[in-house]
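User: I've been trying to design a sequence by hand for this structure and keep getting stuck. Would you show me what you'd pick, starting by listing the structure so we're on the same page?

Assistant: Good idea, let's start from the same input. This is the structure you sent:
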């Protein structure tokens, strides 16, 4: 009996397992696509994303609001798109040689 309880506890602990790259959670929307989920939100659940990096959303209609998908957004999206990680990787500093600049 103790072995069964230990196995059940171990299974519960690994259901939200952290993979080599960090956090992983299955998203039951948009075929488990975090980019689409975090960019569009779930309009039929009456909320819209404000900041995917911070996990902030706004409720568009309180009568049809689904807290399950909204709290998933607040939990998953900051891990999928950390601050500075989702933006452009281009630098604001020019990498061209000054000799190449022509008037």
């Amino acid at each position: 009996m103790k072995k069964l309880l230990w196995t059940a506890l171990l299974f519960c602990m690994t259901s939200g397992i952290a993979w080599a790259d960090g956090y992983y959670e299955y998203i039951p929307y948009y075929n488990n696509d975090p980019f689409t989920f975090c960019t569009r939100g779930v309009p039929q659940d009456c909320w819209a994303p404000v900041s995917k990096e911070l996990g902030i959303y706004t409720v568009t209609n309180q009568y049809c609001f689904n807290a399950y998908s909204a709290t998933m957004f607040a939990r998953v999206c900051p891990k999928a798109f950390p601050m500075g990680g989702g933006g452009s990787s281009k630098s604001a500093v020019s990498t061209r040689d000054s000799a190449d600049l022509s008037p």
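That's my pick for every position. To get oriented when you compare it with your attempt: Helices lie at 2-14, 34-40, 67-80. The first helix runs from residue 2 to 14.
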